[in-house]
Hints:
heterodimer, A: alpha/beta, TIM Barrel, 8-stranded parallel sheet, 4-stranded antiparallel sheet, 9 helices, globular, B: alpha/beta, 7-stranded antiparallel sheet, 6-stranded mixed sheet, 15 strands, 22% helix, binds flavin-adenine dinucleotide, binds flavin mononucleotide, binds FE2/S2 (inorganic) cluster
Amino acid sequence: MKQTVNRSRVNLEVQLAGLTLQNPVMPASGTFGFGEEYAPLFDLNRLGAIVVKTITLQPLIGNPPPRLMETPCGVLNSIGLQNPGLEVFIREKLPYLRRFSPPLIVNIAGRTIDEYAELAERLSAAGGVAALEVNISCPNVKEGGIVFGTVPDMAARVTAAVKSQTHLPVIVKLTPNVTDITAIARAVEEAGADALSLINTVRGMAIDIKTRRPALANIVGGLSGPAIKPVALYAVWQVAQAVKIPLIGMGGIMTSRDAVEFLLAGATAVAVGTAGLVNPTAIIEIIAGLEDYLVEQGLNDIRELIGAVQI
Amino acid sequence: MYVKGKIIEQRKLRSEYNILIIEQAEIARKARPGQFIMLQAWERGDIVLPRPFSLYRILPAKGQLHILYKIRGKATLEMSRRIPGEEVKLIGPLGNGADLPETGNIALLGRGIGAAPLMAIAETAYNRGLVVYTFLSARKRELIPGVVDFTRYSSKVVLSTDDGEENEGRLLTVLLEELITKEGIKIKTVFTCGSKRLAQGLLPMETKYNFRAYVLLEEVMACGIGSCKGCVCKVRTPGTPEGHAYKRVCKDGPVFPASEVIW
Lengths: 311, 263
Ligand SMILES: Cc1cc2nc3c(=O)[nH]c(=O)nc-3n(C[C@H](O)[C@H](O)[C@H](O)COP(=O)(O)OP(=O)(O)OC[C@H]3O[C@@H](n4cnc5c(N)ncnc54)[C@H](O)[C@@H]3O)c2cc1C
Ligand SMILES: Cc1cc2nc3c(=O)[nH]c(=O)nc-3n(C[C@H](O)[C@H](O)[C@H](O)COP(=O)(O)O)c2cc1C
Ligand code: FES
């Protein structure tokens, strides 16, 4: 029988890899920049965590345009990790980000294992960073990126290298563009990862039939949004069975109902990407919607949902 | 600002363009010419992203925004089905907008639907006492929008159509050159939109006739607020290893000095 639950007593707090998140909802890396553009639209202190765009050691100018294309229920992008580089991030972006209370998760990508290690070392020393998210799954750069995410041994070596250089929790972000995502997940867990986030975008392409050229200058892009939700949800469910470390689920979460599905499938937290491009306040609506769902279901604690799908 | 707006009117023009009039007082109060909005005027899940539209007219006194649009694909088709009284969602005003000179003459060069943002520039410039010369082109006469309104705000409106009916279809840059050389009119600033060829044609004229040319660019957008880096254009950037950078049309633009853009 359902209990009556008082809204003010509903608990949304979760623990993830040693971090305390006031709620399990955070932006997905790369769709939220460094937070600056969203700060005028809502209070960033309401987020479960802040996750910034991938940082590389050297600045990256990114891929030539066009970089975006809408496809039915989805978005194809090939930004190419355009970012100002580690130094500028530490000097110009970090001081701003330190003002906010939710844990700051910095996403990193290297061209070599050494670059991942150096990024980890310098960010750990910078202060104000709560955790590292290791991007071994970007489909849009030629060097590094996804290569590290598709071979279990490589994924494990990147993870170990990052772990050896930091005291911070290490979250490894996985790509769905593999035959068996659980093999990568297990390899990364064994190498010491504290949590996993999944999924990054699904590789795809589109062709403009008027010009007969690929719609994206980079030819291939990463698909995100509602189109990939079933793929992402299944990946989360599979990986949840395969590892013990907590998961951050993402891929096509547009509403709180979608977020609930990911929690039920085994995610401890969720990230919202494309939805925030559609509606800049989507993430806040999702947090509120989770609370409503708990009240509606007569539950006191969001943790009761994690992995609670009934098979 | 992410807000709701109400449709006041859906005006079908004779050509393939429509004008959508939206009541949104806050954006109308804040917006400057050359800025744009991200619009969502549909409830269809398969259309994921909002779409960018220039402000054709900004009417702060009435709290209205006018959008001149062309039906291109599914989102603009949905837009054309909206009726007065219905609600839409908007993000805006967005982008840097057009910086008008304090005094002097400006010229506007627009191709087809590219005339849309030029109307707001013409109106504002006219209200500030600047003298406006407008040059518009399209395939045929009926595809040149807003001629009556442009005429109200401009000292002169020059048309050119590919079918030769207007000015034998001559290039707008050539017609601008004639205004400068034959009529002795000094132009301080030029804004152009809707054609890469027009923007490129202005480049050699800048130093020759001592004006500054600005181009209003379009790229496919996702966030519209500068966060995703999806809408970039290539811009000359001395001092960088590459000599160029990718700038965001939504945040760093949509108005760029024409000489900075690498096509
Ligand atoms: C800053 C800015 C201001 C704009 N102002 C106006 C305006 O005032 N009036 C107007 O009619 N249109 C304007 N556009 C273009 C408008 O956004 C597109 O026409 C619209 O997004 C098409 O959506 P759709 O779903 O109907 O077409 P889709 O199905 O998405 O595409 C149909 C065709 O339009 C092209 N297209 C799609 N998006 C864009 C885009 N953003 N820019 C250029 N071409 C595109 C596609 O390549 C395709 O060939 C503007 C674009 C930008 C970036
Ligand atoms: C425009 C855009 C840029 C992205 N940039 C990054 C990035 O820099 N690093 C990263 O790890 N993931 C990046 N992603 C992937 C997202 O973080 C997320 O994994 C993916 O989009 C799936 O979630 P969604 O469907 O909610 O968007 C990007 C996605 C988009 C749409
Ligand atoms: S559309 Fe996202 S940065 Fe311009």
